[in-house]
Amino acid sequence: MNQEKTVFICEDSAEGIFTAVYDGWLEAKKGQIQIRICEPENMELFTRFQYVKSDSEKAGRVMRTVLMKLGTIAYQDLWYAAAASDPDRGTAVFYTIYKSYNHGKWDPGIMEAVADAHVGMVSRLRTRVWRELHHYYGFLRFREIGGQVLFSEIEPESDILEMLGEHFKDRFQGENWMIYDKRRKKAILHPRQSSCTVIRDVQPKMTDQSLGQPEIYEDLWRAFCGAIAIPERKNLALQQQLLPLKYRRNMVEFT
Known about the structure:
Shape: elongated
Order of helices and strands: EHEEHHHEEHEEHEEEHHH
Structural class: alpha/beta
Number of strands: 10
Number of helices: 9
Strand order of the largest sheet: 6-7-8-9-10
């Protein structure tokens, strides 16, 4: 007898994935579960498709449960994995959480079971996202707009905008700043001495007038980078290893 499979199609975001985890929990007792951010190219027999609307309350309940029952490390691993760009991340996140609840008890050590296909995938995705996030901690560059707002444009593979917001909120509390994710067309805004706000489906257009005269400071920064460089120790291969080309499009010292 063929077991029915349910494919939950959700928004391409951590909130969408955790909402699908909430909706798919009871369905997992009836058959296989798969969480995807788009419809598969090939339809399958004995498969039911269910569209999931992102719900912050449902997603919040899942994340709070993970934090309380599985601990901070598992919570961070699953959050990072949900932010990855892999199309199968939703299914891996779902089954890692689902398998951690066995016979009415939660297993805080679930992330140690890396031999399991789903847990192992979450662990690998977590590492990938962590690396990209920490690259942006060092490679993100702000530009001043009209002498009032700091603006940065990024194109990350993973959905790390909110994570970056938490990082820079602590470091630039007294500044008005905005980070724009060009790939996903969303931005995080931070008014001075306030909390961050995420807005979606936006595409800011910067003009020479709105930027004021940023070339003065940008030229100073380029001059500084040139002054500290040692030509005799120039190693382009090592530089590209430590600073991949994909990050340089939005770094003033390379433009």
